[in-house]
C-alpha cells in the first residue's frame, strides 16, 4: 500500500529524548517499510527513517528557539498533505484534530490515531462535532469520553522485539520514568519507595508547564540519599535503567490512554506496579506482568512481594501482545478498510 504518515512537528521521528507519539510513529514507519509498503513520512527535517521523508520544517520545533507558534507549521503541513493526497491509498494522521475539516469535506481515505486524553470539555466538544471522522484508539479505555465517534479500531502500541533486551536478574532499586507532572504522581512514587525502604531512581523530563510543580512539590522530596533524580534519558539509556530495576512504579492519577512505560518494562522483564486508571487494567496482566493497585498501602505490599512474579512471564506477555509486527499488521488492516471504502472521485478532486 501507499501510505502517508503525518507526524507532529514538535519532536523528530524518532525523538532525540522524550516523545511517546513520535516514537510510536517511528516504529510503525520502519516496520511498514520492512513489510514491503510504500511509506512517506511527513515530519521534521531532522527525522531519520527508511521511509520517504518529506520534511515540513527544518528541525523539530521543541529544539528550535525561533519557533513561537507551532500551530502555524502544522496548518501548512496539513495543506501540503491534502495537496499530495492523490499519491496515496490512505493518509494516517497523528495530529489530534486540526485536519478534520478538510478530510471530512474532501472525503479523503484517512485514519487518525488518538494519542492523548479525550476527557477535557473542549476535546469532547470538537470530537463530538466531527464524530464521523475515522479514528483509531490506542486502548478501549481511551474511547470512554466520546464512545459514539467513528472508531474503526483499537490498536495497542507495539515495540521492536530487539529494542529492549531481557534482564533475568533484578537490581535493588525501584524506577520511575517518563515526565514530571501532577497526573504522573512522582510524589506518590517517592512515598511508596520510602515506605517500602527501597531506593528510587527517577528518570523524567520536566516540561516548562510543569516546572513550578517540580520546584514546589517534587524538588523538596529529593533531599534524601534514597531518591536519585537523573533527568531525561534516551532509549539506549532506558534499557539498563528499566531492565536493572526491581520494579517500575506507574502511580498515575489520570485516564492514561496507553502508557508505553508498561510495555517497555514488560520487554525488559521488569514487573510494573500501576494504579488502576485509564488503560492500565487493559494493558497489564495483574499477577503476571506486575500488580494493579488502588492505594498506597496496596502498592507498598506489591513492592514487598514483587519477588513472587516471574520476569520471564513479563517478557512472554510482551512477545505475545505488544510487538511492532502485530501493531503494523493491525494498521494495515485498518488502512485497507479505509482505502476500499473511500470515494476515489472526491479523492482525486
UniProtKB/TrEMBL annotation:
InterPro entries, sorted: Glyco_trans_1, Glyco_trans_4-like_N
Highest rank taxon of the organism: Bacteria
Positions of the Glycosyl transferase family domain: 173-310
Domain Glycosyltransferase subfamily 4-like N-terminal: from-to ranges: 18-122
PANTHER family: BLL5217 PROTEIN (PTHR12526:SF595), GLYCOSYLTRANSFERASE (PTHR12526)
UniProt-recorded name of the protein: Glycosyltransferase family 4 protein
Species, as recorded: Pendulispora brunnea
Amino acid at each position: 500500500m501507499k501510505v502517508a504518515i503525518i507526524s507532529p512537528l514538535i519532536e523528530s521521528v524518532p525523538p532525540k529524548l522524550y516523545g511517546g507519539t513520535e516514537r510510536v510513529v517511528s516504529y510503525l514507519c520502519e516496520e511498514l517499510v520492512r513489510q514491503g509498503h510504500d511509506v512517506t513520512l511527513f515530519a521534521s527535517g531532522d527525522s531519520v527513517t527508511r521511509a520517504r521523508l518529506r520534511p515540513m520544517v527544518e528541525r523539530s520545533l521543541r529544539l528550535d528557539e525561533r519557533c513561537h507558534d507551532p500551530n502555524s507549521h502544522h496548518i501548512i503541513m496539513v495543506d501540503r498533505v491534502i495537496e499530495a493526497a492523490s499519491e496515496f491509498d490512505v493518509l494516517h494522521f497523528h495530529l489530534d484534530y486540526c485536519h478534520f475539516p478538510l478530510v471530512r469535506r474532501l472525503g479523503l481515505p484517512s485514519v487518525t490515531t488518538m494519542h492523548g486524553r479525550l476527557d477535557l470539555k473542549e476535546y469532547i466538544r470538537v470530537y463530538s462535532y466531527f464524530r464521523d471522522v475515522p479514528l483509531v484508539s490506542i486502548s478501549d479505555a481511551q474511547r470512554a469520553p466520546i464512545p459514539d465517534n467513528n472508531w474503526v479500531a483499537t490498536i495497542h502500541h507495539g515495540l521492536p522485539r530487539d529494542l529492549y533486551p531481557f534482564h533475568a536478574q533484578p537490581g535493588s532499586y525501584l524506577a520511575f520514568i517518563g515526565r514530571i507532572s501532577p497526573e504522573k504522581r512522582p510524589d506518590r512514587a517517592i512515598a511508596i519507595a520510602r515506605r517500602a525502604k527501597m531506593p528510587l531512581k527517577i528518570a523524567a523530563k520536566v516540561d516548562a508547564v510543569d516546572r513550578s510543580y517540580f520546584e514546589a512539590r517534587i524538588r523538596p522530596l529529593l533531599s534524601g540519599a534514597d531518591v536519585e533524580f537523573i533527568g531525561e534519558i534516551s532509549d539506549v539509556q532506558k534499557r539498563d535503567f528499566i531492565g536493572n530495576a526491581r520494579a517500575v512504579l506507574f502511580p498515575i492519577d489520570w485516564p492514561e490512554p496507553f502508557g508505553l512505560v508498561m510495555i517497555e518494562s514488560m520487554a525488559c522483564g521488569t514487573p510494573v506496579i500501576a494504579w488502576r486508571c485509564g488503560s492500565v487494567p487493559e494493558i497489564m496482566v495483574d499477577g503476571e506482568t506486575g500488580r494493579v493497585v488502588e492505594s498506597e498501602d496496596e502498592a507498598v505490599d506489591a513492592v514487598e512481594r514483587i519477588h513472587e512474579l516471574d520476569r520471564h512471564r513479563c517478557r512472554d506477555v510482551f512477545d505475545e501482545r505488544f510487538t511492532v509486527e502485530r501493531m503494523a499488521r493491525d494498521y494495515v488492516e485498518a488502512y485497507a478498510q479505509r482505502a476500499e471504502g473511500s470515494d476515489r472521485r472526491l479523492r482525486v478532486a
